[in-house]
Structure formats: structure tokens, C-alpha cells
Amino acid sequence: MILACGMSAIGQETLTPSLSKLEALANQATPPEVREAAAFQADGTVRPIFFDALDWEGKPTRVFAWIGFPAGASKEKPAPGIVLVHGGGGTAFKDWVKEWNEQGFAAISIAVEGQTEQKGQSGAKWQRHEHGGPARSGTYSDFTKPLEDQWMYHAVADTILANNLLRSLPEVDPAKVGIMGVSWGGVITSTVIGIDQRFAFAIPTYGCGGLHKAASHYSKHLANNPLYPILWDPNLRLEKATMPVLWLSWTGDPHFPMDSLAASHEKVSGVSVFALVPKMNHGHGPARKRSESYAFAKSVVQDGKPWCVPESTKIDGGALTAVFNSTKALDSATLISTTGTGDTLKRQWIETAAVLKQENGKWIATATVPPGTTACFMNVSSSKLVATSDYLEP
């Protein structure tokens, strides 16, 4: 593969067949073969497995995962499902599966770097297994390798295969399987939903596309990577995502700036909403502890749409007005704004109490926008749940 700064130098003839293989995975009904994970023990209804994945450097690979079902799930009463994708430093988390099972969802949590949930040795956080695929190499740092040997290629394929597996099980409703990914898992989720449109909903947490333009460390890492902007940027295919999408994050995220998140949000063809939680912090723990992901998923599989959707967000006469359609009663509204520029992590964000009222079945939140505001949005809450308007840059 010859690399230079343009599609012509890499060659469309090189990329198209390989991407077609990923798309083919999303169009097949045959699930991957499941194998016993003998070194691990089941925990109630949650059990460890390996499933067959794509060849890497000419050798077959397998993916380690935990899979579990909610109480009462059966062929006669199939449950909704979710594919869970970890971020950097993570793995297939058994407890993450349990948490979704308790919410009524079948779940599969996969390890996308050839690792297990056993602690590693010699400085490694997690132990690799003998049939593991590639580990992540920096920020798309393996772009000079053949496409089918790159980590993101395998991470996307592993996620699609997990979807194929979960959808094939009699205890799962194949029309109600979603996906959630945290950090790098959010990047994978953003990439996968532009390739596999079968997901009923998606929850990219922190991670998004457009990272070569991000006002963060990602743009520096990708400055000399010609492949990302023409192949791996999720924004290239997000218009194919027709399922409801929740972008779960916060303004202080150190990796994925708000303007990058907003750009990905705008690319989605389906209903695309934010939940921007103040002081959320970055990590698997904060993402899993928040209730927004569960509320969003439940509302989509039960009602076909998110529980709260902004109808309009506009600034007029120095005031921001956001109109929401919500199936839950709202109890407060807050304008969040900044007068800063550059990386949204480094800006000061100001919270201003907003006026919230209900008219004709809609919720209307209004607040005065501080002079010099460079970005703002409205948050509304229902008990501990946060829902967010569109993100504006006046």
C-alpha cells in the first residue's frame, strides 16, 4: 500500500474491497462460532465466551466476551439487547453486562484488543489470550499496515460480529439490539453505526469523529495520517446512521471537544440527541453510573424514540429558547455557556438558571445569554436525568 496525502495515492481499489468485507458482515445472518472460555467461571446468568473473528496477519482470531440475559428472557418473551464496547485501558467487563441485565437488556461486553478480564503481567493491565487479534497502536498509528491488519478494522469487525451473535439468540429480540461504547469504544460505536445500520439505537460516550480537526491531542497525532480523514473518520458515514443516537458526554472532556462531538451529532440522519452532564468526568465508571444511557435505551425500545427530544433551539433578542418534547415531567432547566475560544476543555463554562414552563404539551426553557458567548446549550432535568438541547455557536 502506497501512502500519501490523498485518496488517489492510497487507491480506492485498495480500500473498497476491504470495506465491503465489513459491510458484508453486517448483512449476514450467520453468527460467529462460540467457544468455551474454560479459564473463567460463569456468574449467575452471565457467562464467559470466545467467539471466532477475522484472520489477523494470516492467523485466525477469537474475541473474549461476557454475555448475559435479564430475568425472564426466553424464546417466547425475547429481551432487547445491547453490545458494549470498552475504551482505552478497558476490557470485556462482566459487571457492565450485569448492570444492563438488571435494566432488562440482554448484553454482550467484548474485548477488542485480544485481551481477557484477567489481570496482566509485566506491566500489562489485562492478559492477552493466545488467539487475540491486534492491540490498539496509539492513535491509528498502524495506518501503514495493510488495512485488514489494522486495529480499527478488527475492532469494527468484532463489534459487528457481536451484533450478529446477540441477534441470533432466541432470548433476544433482533429488532431491539443497540450499542454503547465508552471513549475509544465511543469512537468504535461512531464508526460502526455508519456501516451496520441494524442497531436499534446507539450511545457513543465521549468518543466521536472529526478527530483530525479536533482542538485536542488527537489532531496532533493525526496530522501526518492520510488514511484517517478519507477512511476512518466516523463522520464520513454517519449520515447512514438512521437509528436514534445519544451522544453522552460533558464540556470538560479532555479528549473529545464539544465542537467535534457536535459535528458528529449533526451528521446523523436519525434522531440525534445530547446528554451533556456537568462534571461527569471521563472513564468507564462515570459512563456506567449515569442513568441517561438506560433511560434512552428503554425509551427507544419501548416507544421508538428517546424520552426527551429538543424540538428547537434558538437565540433571539439575547435569549436562548429551547423547546423539548418529553415523555417525563421536567423539573429544572439550566443554560450552560462560555465566552472562551479554542479547546472546550480549557474554557470556563457558566451555569445560569433558566425559566422552565409547559405549554401545549411541550416544555419551554428560556434564559438570557451572557454577552460575548461563543457556545451554549440548554440542559433540562427530570429527577436525576439530564437531557440537552442542540449545541449552538452563535
List keywords for this structure.
394 residues, four-stranded antiparallel sheet, nine-stranded mixed sheet, Rossmann fold, alpha/beta, disordered N terminus
Q: Give the C-level CATH assignment of the largest domain.
A: Alpha Beta
Largest sheet: 9 strands, mixed
Q: What structural class results from the helix and strand content? A: alpha/beta
Report the average pLDDT across residues: 94
The stretches of 5 or more residues where confidence is low (pLDDT under 50) are 1-9
User: What is the fold-level CATH name, i.e. the topology of the largest domain?
Assistant: Rossmann fold
Number of discrete helical segments: 9
Rg calculated over all Cα atoms: 21 Å
Order of helices and strands: HHEEEEHEEEHEHEHEHEHHEEEEEEEE
- In whole angstroms, how far apart are the ends? 44 Å
Helical content (DSSP H or I, runs of 4+): 10-25%
Beta percentage is 25-35%
Strand order of the largest sheet: 1-2-3-5-4-8-9-10-11
The total tally of domains equals 2
The CATH level-2 architecture of the largest domain is identified as 3-Layer(aba) Sandwich
How many individual β-strands? 19
Q: What is the CATH homologous superfamily assignment of the largest domain?
A: Alpha/Beta hydrolase fold, catalytic domain
